[in-house]
Design brief:
Three copies of one chain form a homotrimer. Chain A is mainly alpha-helical. Chain A has a single domain, classed as Ammonium transporter AmtB like domains (Ammonium transporter fold, Orthogonal Bundle). Chain A has helices at 6-30, 62-80, 87-110, 121-141, 147-172, 180-197, 218-238, 245-270, 278-295, 302-329, 339-360, 363-366, 370-373, 375-379, 384-414; strands spanning 31-33, 112-113, 116-119. Chain A has a three-stranded mixed β-sheet. In chain A, strand 2 (112-113) and strand 3 (116-119) form a beta hairpin. In chain A, helix 11 packs antiparallel against helix 15 (384-414). Chains A and B meet through helix 1, strand 1, helix 2, helix 3 and helix 7 of A and helix 7, helix 8, helix 9 and helix 10 of B. Chains A, B, C: The chain crosses the membrane at residues 12-31, 65-81, 88-113, 125-143, 150-169, 218-235, 247-270, 299-323, 343-363.
Chain lengths: 415, 415, 415
C-alpha cells in the first residue's frame, strides 16, 4: 500500500465518514425490517422470483444466515496467504462497507415496495454474495491501490454486481444459485479490468508469484480449512429446498476432494523444488468450489462431481505457470492474488458445465427435483432449450458487464 | 507472568487438584441431568422466569449449545492479540474451571429442586455467559497475576456474576438477553477493580499500549473472524423465539459493520503512522457487539443499529488514546487488554440505549413481538414505565456489585 | 520429509493420477446418489443396522454433514503443532483421497444394493470417521515416510478400518457411536505398528519430544479451539435421536473441561520449567474426547463425565514423560505426534469404561433412553450380559486387526 501523507489520511477518514453518514441517512429513509416475523419476507406484491426462482416458498432458517458471513471471510483469509502487508485490515473494512451498500442497492432492485425496502435474512444472504464478488475483485488489485480507491471500487462494484445479478437471475431466469457466473466470473473479470486500467508501465513489474518462502503458511492453512468446512454448508443455505439440498452439498464435497488431489498430480511435474505448498491446495479448493457454483445442484452422479473437480483443480497450477506471466507481460494486467486462475477460469468452466447439464436435464434423470432446479421447465412454461439458451447467454452478458463496468470504474472513478 | 518457584508450581498443582476434586464431589452429590429428554428442563416447580422471561416455553435446540463455547473462545483469541506470552494456556484453563463452577453456582440459584440441580442445555448456555464475563475480567489483569490468583479470581467472579445476574434478570425482571450489563459491564468493572487493588506502585508502568509491532497479527485476524461469524449466531441462540430472532441477528450484523467503519474514520486522524491495525478492527467488532447486548432485540429499524454501532466503534480508539493513560496514571488502574474501552464503556452505552428503547417501546412499533421482549408489559402486569425504571436500576446495581465485589476479591483473596 | 528426486516426484504424480482415475471409474460404475430425497437413504433391503443400530429411523439433517469435515481438520491442525515442516499439505491430500476411498469401501460393505452403491449424507459421515482414523495413523509416522508411502498407507488403512468397523458395529452389534474403539484405538495402533515395521535402526533417534520452543503456538491454539467448538457438535450429529443427544453433548463438554484441568494439575509437577504449553492442553482435549467416544452417550450423571475426563487428561502428560521414551528405545516404535498417549490409551480406557457402563446399564437408570442406546437389550432379544460380552470382545478384535493389518501394510506395501 502506498505511503500515507497527512492529507490522504484525512481524505480517507473524511470519505469514510461521509459514506457511512450517507448510508445511514438512506437506511433511515428507505430501509425497514420485514413486517412479517418470517425472515426473507416476500409478499405477493414483491418480486420474489429472484435468486431461487421459488424463493417465495422458502424461508431460509435464520440460523443459516450467519454462515453466510463466512463466504467473504474464507476468501479474505485465502487472499492473506498471497498478499499480506497491511491489506488485511482494509479488506475487512471493504467487507463492512460492501455489506451495507449491497443491502441498499439490492434492496432497491428486489425488495422495494411502497417506497420502502424491506430487509430480512434473504437480504443479508444476497449482500454477502455481493461482498464475496467484491473481495474477489479487490484480489486482483490488492497492493496497488490506496484505501480511497478501494472504497470507490466497492461503491461501483456493488452497483454493477447487483445489476448483473438482477439481469441474469430475475429478468432472464438463469439458474446460478451459488454464483459461478455472478460471483466468481463477474468478480474476477471486473477486478482484472480495473487492474488493466490502473496499469502503470514504469511501476508494475511482472514479478514471479508464489515465492513467499516455504514456511507452512498459517493463513493458507486456516483459509483452506475454512473453505472445506463452510463452503459446502454455504452451498446448502442457498439451495431452495431440503429435497434439492443433499446432492449440491455432496457434489461440492466430491469436487473439493478431487480438485485437491489434482494439485498433487500437477505440482510435482510443474515445480522443480517439488514441495507442495499450502497455498496451492487452497487455490485448488477455491477452484473446485467455483466450478460447482452453477453445476453443483444439477449434477446427478457423484463421479461427475469428481471429474469436474479434478479438471478445476488442474486450472490454477497451469494458470499460474503459463497464463499469469502472459497476462502480465502481454496484456499489461497484473493479478496480485491470481483471481483469474482461481475464480475467473473455473467460474467460466463451471458456467459452461452448468449449461451442458441443463441441456442434458430430463425429467427422467431429475425426477421430482426438476421442479426445484428448473421450475419454469417443470411447469411447462419453458422448453428445456429455452433454459439452455438462457444459461448460455448468461456468460457473455456477465463478461460484458464486468469488463465494461471495470474499465469505466477504473477510468473515471479510480484515476 | 511472574517466574515460578518450585513451591509455587506445586501449590498451583495442588490447588487445581483440590478444586477439581471438590467440584466433582459437589457434582456427585447435587448435579443430575434433567430427567426430561428436552434440553433445559424447566418444570412447573422450577423458577423458569430467568434469562428469558419465558424460558419455560423455549427449548433451545441442542445444536446451538455448542455454539456457545465460541463466545468465550472469541474473547480468548481476541485477548491473545493484545497480550501473548504464556497467557493463552492459562486462559483456557480458566475457562475449563469457570464452566464447571458456573454450572454449579447458577444451578443452585436457578435449577435447584428437591435437593438436586438439574442441568441441561440451558445450564451450559448460562455457564458460558458467565465464563465470558470472567474472561473479560482476566483481560484487565492479564500478565500481572499468577495462575493461583487467576483461579481465585475465577472462583469469586463466578459467584458474584451469578448473584448479579440472578438479582437483575430473575428478581428485578431486567431485560438483558445478551449481556450488555451482566456480561460486558460487570466483567469489565470487576476486572478493573481487582486490577486497581493489585496495583503495585513501583512495578507497574503505564506503558503505551498498542505497540506490538506492525506485522499482520494472526491472532487478531482469527479473533475478528470468529467474532463476525459466531457472535450474531450466539445472539440467535439466546433469544426467545423464532419470531424475535431475525431482528436481533440483523441488528448485530449492522452494528458490527458500522462499528468497523467507524474505526477507519477515527484511526487515520488519531494515529500518525496511519496504518490500520487488525487489533483496532477487532476492538471495534467487540464494542459493536457489546453495544447490541441489550438493545439488539429492541431496535426496530436497521438504521438505529447502524448509528449505535457507529458510535460504539468510536469508543475504543478514543478510549485507548485519551482514557487509558488517565486511568493508569491518575486512577492507578492498569488495564492490560483495554477491557474498559472495549467492553466497559460500550456495555454501559448499550444499557443506556436499551433503557431508552424500552421507554420508546409501544405496542404499535413492536406489534406481536412485544410479548416476547417485554412479556410483563404485554400481559399488562407492568406498565412500560415500570420496565424503564427497572432497566435503569440495572446499571447502578451492576456497577456497585462489580466494584464492591472486585475490591473485596482483590483485597481478601488475591493479596 | 525426505528429499525428492525427479523420479520420485514423477512417480508420486503418476500414482496420484492413477488412483484418482481409478476412483473416478469405480465411482462411475458403482456409485449413485440415493434416489430418495432423504439423506442417508436406507431402504428395507439395505443393511441399515449399522453405525447406529436404528439408523434406519434417523435422517441426520444435512446441515450437520458439513460439520463432519471438522473432525478430520481438528486432528489435522492438532498434528501441525507437533510436526510441521511440509507435512500440512500432504495431510490434506491424504484426507482428500481417504474421503473418496472410504465412500467406496464402506459403500461396498453397507450401501451395496442391486449392483450399485447408494451414497448420501450417512456415507459422508462414515467416510469422515474413517478419515479421522487414517489421520491418527499418519500421526505416528509423519516425517519418516514419503508421500507415496502415505498414499499406500491410506489405501490399506481405509480397507482395514472399514472391515474392523463392519465386524464390530454391524456383525457383532458393539455400541461405539463416536469411535473410542473404531477410530481412536484402531487408528493409533495401526499407525504404531506401521511405524514399528518401518523402524530404521541407524536413522531413527529417540529425540526428546515437546521441545518445539516456547512461543505460543498458533496451530495448537487454533487446533484446541476447533476441538472445543466442534467436537461436541460432532458428537451430536452421530447420535441417534434427539432424545439421546443432550447427555452425550454435555458429557463431552464436562469431560473436556475436566481433562483440561488435569493437565494443569500434572504439568507443573512433571516439568521443571513450569510453563504450560498449548500443545499439552490440546493433547488433554483430544484425550478427553477419545475417552467419551463410547461412554459419552452411556453416562447418566455429569460427575461421571468429570471423573472420566480428569483421568483421561492425566494420560498424555504421564505418557509423554514415561511411556514414549520406553516405546522408542525398547520397542523400537517411534511415535511422531504421540498418538499412543493421545488416542491409543484414552481410546482403550474409554472402551473399558463403556463396557463397565454397559454392565451397569439398567432400565431404571436409562428410562426411555435404553431403547436408543441398547436397542437389542431393550427389545429383549439380548440380555444385558450379551451386550457386555459383545462390548468387551470389541477391544481385542480391534487391537488384533490394527496390529496385524499394520504389520502387513508396513511389510508388504510400504517397504
Amino acid at each position: 500500500m502506498p505511503e500515507y501523507t497527512t492529507a490522504s489520511r484525512f481524505r480517507l477518514s473524511g470519505l469514510c465518514f461521509l459514506l457511512q453518514i450517507i448510508t445511514i441517512i438512506i437506511f433511515a429513509v428507505f430501509v425497514r425490517y420485514s413486517p412479517e416475523s418470517s425472515p426473507g419476507f416476500c409478499s405477493q406484491q414483491l418480486n420474489c422470483s429472484w435468486r431461487n426462482q421459488d424463493a417465495g416458498f422458502q424461508h431460509p432458517r435464520f440460523r443459516d444466515v450467519h454462515l453466510q458471513a463466512l463466504l467473504g471471510f474464507g476468501l479474505l483469509v485465502a487472499f492473506l496467504s498471497r498478499y499480506r502487508p497491511g491489506s488485511v485490515a482494509i479488506s475487512i473494512l471493504i467487507m463492512a462497507f460492501a455489506i451495507q451498500w449491497a443491502v441498499l442497492i439490492q434492496g432497491f432492485l428486489h425488495f422495494f415496495l411502497n417506497g420502502k425496502i424491506y430487509v430480512g435474512a434473504q437480504s443479508m444472504v444476497s449482500a454477502d454474495f455481493c461482498t464475496a464478488a467484491i473481495l474477489i475483485s479487490t484480489g486482483a488489485v490488492l497492493g496497488r491501490v490506496n484505501p480511497v480507491q478501494m472504497l470507490l471500487l466497492t461503491l461501483m462494484g456493488v452497483i454493477l454486481f447487483s445489476l448483473n445479478e438482477y439481469i441474469l437471475l430475475s429478468l432472464m431466469g438463469v439458474r446460478d444459485s451459488r454464483g459461478s457466473l455472478t460471483v466468481h466470473t463477474f468478480g474476477a473479470y471486473f477486478g482484472l479490468m480495473v487492474s488493466r486500467i490502473l496499469h502503470q508501465p514504469h511501476m508494475d513489474k511482472c514479478k514471479k508469484q508464489q515465492d513467499t518462502g516455504n514456511q507452512p503458511d498459517v493463513f493458507a492453512v486456516v483459509g483452506t480449512i475454512y473453505l472445506w468446512i463452510f463452503w459446502p454448508s454455504f452451498t446448502s443455505a442457498t439451495t431452495v429446498r431440503e429435497n434439492a439440498e443433499p446432492w449440491a452439498v455432496l457434489n461440492t464435497y466430491f469436487s473439493l476432494a478431487a480438485s485437491t488431489l489434482a494439485t498433487l498430480v500437477l505440482s510435482p511435474v510443474l515445480h522443480e523444488e517439488g514441495t507442495l505448498r499450502m497455498v496451492q491446495i487452497q487455490d485448488a479448493t477455491l477452484a473446485g468450489a467455483a466450478m460447482m457454483g452453477m453445476a453443483g445442484e444439477m449434477l446427478v452422479t457423484p463421479f461427475g462431481a469428481l471429474i469436474a473437480g479434478f479438471l478445476a483443480g488442474l486450472i490454477p497450477p497451469l494458470g499460474f505457470r503459463f497464463l499469469t506471466p502472459v497476462l502480465c507481460s502481454r496484456l499489461k494486467t497484473q493479478d496480485t492474488c491470481g483471481v483469474h486462475n482461481v475464480h475467473g477460469l473455473p467460474g467460466i468452466l463451471g458456467a459452461l458445465l452448468g449449461t451442458l447439464l441443463t441441456a442434458l436435464a430430463t425429467a427422467d434423470a431429475y425426477g421430482g427435483r426438476l421442479e426445484f432446479i428448473f421450475p419454469l421447465v417443470a411447469q411447462g412454461s419453458w422448453t428445456a432449450t429455452d433454459q439452455v439458451l438462457c444459461q448460455l447467454c448468461g456468460l457473455p452478458i456477465t463478461l460484458l458487464l464486468a469488463t465494461l463496468g471495470g474499465s469505466l470504474t477504473g477510468e473515471f472513478c479510480l484515476r
